[in-house]
Amino acid sequence: MAKDPKQAQKKKHIVKGPCEDCHTTEGEFTVVRRQVVGSKGRIIKLCAKCAIKP
Q1: How many Cβ atoms from other residues are within 10 Å of residue 32's Cβ?
Q2: Of 52, 1, 54, which Cα lies nearest the Cα of 28?
Q3: Over the Cα atoms of the chain, what is R_g?
Q4: How far apart are alpha carbons 28 and 45 in whole angstroms?
Q5: What are the DSSP E strand ranges found in the chain?
Q6: What pLDDT is recorded for position 52?
Protein backbone atom coordinates (compact mmCIF):
# COMPACT_ATOMS: atom_id res chain seq x y z
CA MET A 1 0.00 0.00 0.00
CA ALA A 2 1.42 3.39 -0.98
CA LYS A 3 1.91 6.21 1.49
CA ASP A 4 -0.70 8.94 1.53
CA PRO A 5 0.94 12.06 -0.04
CA LYS A 6 -1.18 14.40 2.08
CA GLN A 7 0.06 12.74 5.26
CA ALA A 8 3.71 13.20 4.23
CA GLN A 9 3.19 16.93 3.53
CA LYS A 10 1.83 17.84 6.98
CA LYS A 11 3.87 20.39 8.92
CA LYS A 12 5.46 19.45 12.21
CA HIS A 13 3.81 20.86 15.30
CA ILE A 14 5.85 23.87 16.45
CA VAL A 15 5.51 25.05 20.04
CA LYS A 16 5.40 28.84 20.26
CA GLY A 17 5.11 31.25 23.12
CA PRO A 18 7.08 32.94 25.85
CA CYS A 19 9.35 30.92 28.13
CA GLU A 20 7.93 30.56 31.62
CA ASP A 21 11.28 31.35 33.30
CA CYS A 22 13.05 33.99 31.18
CA HIS A 23 10.04 35.24 29.12
CA THR A 24 11.90 35.11 25.79
CA THR A 25 9.85 34.56 22.63
CA GLU A 26 12.69 33.48 20.31
CA GLY A 27 14.00 30.00 19.56
CA GLU A 28 12.59 26.53 20.08
CA PHE A 29 10.43 25.65 23.06
CA THR A 30 9.90 22.42 24.97
CA VAL A 31 6.76 21.50 26.86
CA VAL A 32 7.50 20.13 30.34
CA ARG A 33 5.54 19.28 33.48
CA ARG A 34 6.64 21.30 36.51
CA GLN A 35 5.83 19.62 39.81
CA VAL A 36 3.80 21.61 42.33
CA VAL A 37 3.36 20.49 45.94
CA GLY A 38 -0.05 18.95 46.46
CA SER A 39 -0.86 18.72 42.77
CA LYS A 40 -0.09 16.63 39.70
CA GLY A 41 1.91 19.54 38.32
CA ARG A 42 1.31 21.98 35.53
CA ILE A 43 2.37 22.06 31.90
CA ILE A 44 4.74 24.92 30.99
CA LYS A 45 6.86 25.94 27.99
CA LEU A 46 10.63 26.42 28.38
CA CYS A 47 13.21 27.68 25.89
CA ALA A 48 16.28 25.60 25.06
CA LYS A 49 18.48 27.47 27.56
CA CYS A 50 16.07 27.12 30.49
CA ALA A 51 15.21 23.49 29.73
CA ILE A 52 18.77 22.28 30.42
CA LYS A 53 19.23 24.15 33.71
CA PRO A 54 19.53 21.84 36.76
Answers
A1: 14
A2: 52
A3: 16
A4: 10
A5: 29-34, 42-47
A6: 82
Query: Is residue 3 very low, low, confident or very high in pLDDT (cuts 50, 70, 90)?
Result: low
Report the candidate in 12, 34, 8 with the shortest Cα–Cα distance to residue 21. Answer: 34
What gap in Å lies between CA 50 and CA 21, rounded to an integer?
A: 7
- Residue 17 backbone zone (phi > 0: left; psi -120 to 50: alpha; other: beta): left
Nearest to 16 by CA among 25, 3, 4: 25
End-to-end CA separation in angstroms for the chain: 47
Position 20: which residue type? E
Q: What is the pTM of this model?
A: 0.61
